[in-house]
Design a protein that fits this description.
This protein is an alpha/beta fold. It is built from 15 helices and 26 strands. Keywords: Ligase.
């Protein structure tokens, strides 16, 4: 199989004059970008980085970050990106855990880098900021493009979100990265010359996949450093974006922005989402807003890019579909010790994926404890709950840890959230279980409301929608905003811990 550097060279041969990357005034064709990538790869070597070393980057989605990503693939250096919001302590952990040999950063991360003890011991590459070396100087050099890696070399190490413990490194080989990109192209039916909005962070698997996928088809990666709804709408119209691949939260913000109605979004023909379930209400809104030719629910993870695909997401709301091109999926019984303990159709259990997938990782970075928990008998135990329906389609119902056991019954928050999302007075919703002496836990719905909807109206909506009585929320809390991670994932644990802002007086009419 191709290594990623050779893969990029092949892309340049196919489409040398095609527009490859856009970032403000920067517009580079594939041939022009290759010159920059080759120069940066050579410059990293001059700084002392060798094959197999880790380069940690603390960058937003800018062309320099994408260039460093590709330069690492050519040089055989392990790209190790982290959230640009990382605190000094978080940065210290990643730098030490990955045994990083250098760090690249920009002004937004300057304070954290300055306060990181580990960062002071490393060569630092500045992107628009003074440092030991300047990215601009590296990119201004000249070098012959020469891939120095093979398909079995490490490409990338992402870190999991670490909401309950220290984040885990997820190292992935170049062949797995390329296969994930090939599958992304095929499963989203991307054609030659697609244009995508590069807003999902390049420290997240969705962002990386969009970057690599565009290279395979002579497509354009339009950088949006951080998500800004107004700017995203401007770029969709100005750059004639053809596909969007976002988490549901970002879609929600797009279609509910005041400028959406006046923005020409006709070029967008394909929608894809991942990272979290999408409520029935948002599916309906997006279908009416974009009239997409293809609406894909992609279910996967950093560890194994694709689990399942539903290419008709709006026609079967909530369904994650069937196994992807490079995967086999099972649902094991909850608490199963072995993948042979399979749940029956319709029975909720833990979703597991075949670890032999061409898109899969091979284990966490120096975490044998996590390997033992997640990798068993050749299968990856995802920690997600779900079930197969009568058609063999998978439904993802939440996390094993998020399951609400109330009065001895298992309740999935996702089903309740989808039900409540259909009420016109609900802008966003999250459901959790909170301790209660008699029932163990009760179902509580946290609502960011639109208008003056009351708990009584919401309860009546749940009753008439067909939601089973034991699943109905016993309490409603109105909040200023639903807590989410930087990439838009719902943070239920913050709600359980009481870490949220109640709705301000008068805010319900917003």
């Amino acid at each position: 199989m191709f290594d990623l550097g050779t893969s990029f060279l092949a892309s340049v041969e196919r489409d040398p004059g095609a527009l490859a990357v856009v970032d403000g005034d920067v517009r580079l064709t594939y041939a022009q970008w290759l010159e920059k990538i080759a120069a940066v790869a050579d410059g990293l070597g001059a700084l002392g980085l060798k094959h197999g070393d880790h380069l940690v980057t603390v960058l937003q989605n800018r062309w320099e970050a994408a260039t460093l990503h590709w330069a690492c693939q050519f040089a055989g250096i392990v790209m190790t990106p982290v959230n640009w919001r990382a605190t000094p302590d978080e940065l210290d952990f990643v730098l030490e855990n990955s045994e990083a040999k250098a760090l690249a950063f920009e002004p937004v991360a300057q304070a954290s880098v300055a306060a990181s003890a580990a960062a002071q011991r490393l060569p630092r590459i500045g992107v628009g900021v003074a440092a030991d070396a300047a990215f601009e100087a590296l990119a201004a050099g000249r070098a012959t493009p020469s891939p120095r890696a093979v398909a079995d070399d490490w490409s990338l190490m992402l870190y999991t979100s670490g909401t309950t413990a220290k984040p885990k490194g997820v190292p992935r080989r170049q062949r797995a990265e390329r296969m994930g990109a090939v599958a992304h192209v095929a499963q989203n039916l991307y054609g030659r010359g697609e244009v995508t909005l590069g807003v999902m962070p390049l420290y997240h698997t969705m962002g990386v996949r969009s970057l690599l996928a565009m290279s395979l088809i002579g497509g354009t990666f339009v950088c949006l450093p951080r998500f800004d709804v107004a700017r995203a709408l401007e770029l969709i119209e100005a750059e004639r974006i053809t596909n969007l691949y976002l988490v549901p939260t970002l879609y929600h913000d797009l279609v509910h922005h005041a400028r959406f109605a006046e923005t020409d979004t006709a070029s967008v023909r394909k929608l894809g989402f991942a990272g979290a379930p999408m409520t029935d209400g948002l599916l309906k809104t997006l279908t009416e807003a974009f009239h997409p030719e293809l609406f894909v629910n992609h279910y996967g993870s950093s560890e194994i890019y694709t689990f399942t695909i539903n290419q008709k997401a709006a026609e079967k709301p909530g369904s994650a579909g069937k196994s992807g091109l490079n995967q086999l999926i099972r649902v094991a019984k909850l608490g199963a010790a072995s993948p042979t303990e399979r749940a029956a159709p319709g029975e909720e259990g833990e979703i597991i994926a075949l670890a032999a997938s061409d898109e899969a990782f091979e284990g966490y970075w120096r975490r044998p404890d996590s390997d033992a928990k997640s990798l068993r008998d050749g299968w990856y135990f995802t920690g997600d709950t779900g079930y197969f329906d009568a058609d063999g389609d998978l439904y993802v119902t939440g996390r094993v840890d998020d399951m609400i056991i109330t009065g001895g019954e298992n309740v999935s928050p996702v089903e309740i959230e989808s039900c409540l999302s259909m009420h016109p007075g609900v802008a966003e919703v999250a459901v959790v279980g909170l301790p209660e002496p008699r029932w163990g836990k009760i179902v509580v719905a946290f609502i960011q409301r639109r208008g003056d909807v009351t708990p009584e109206e919401l309860d009546a909506h749940c009753r008439t929608s067909g939601l089973a009585n034991f699943k109905r929320p016993r309490r409603y809390e109105f909040v200023a905003a639903i807590p989410k991670s930087p990439v838009g994932k719902l943070l239920r644990r913050q709600l359980v811990a009481g870490e949220y802002e109640p709705e301000h007086s008068g805010e319900s009419a917003a």
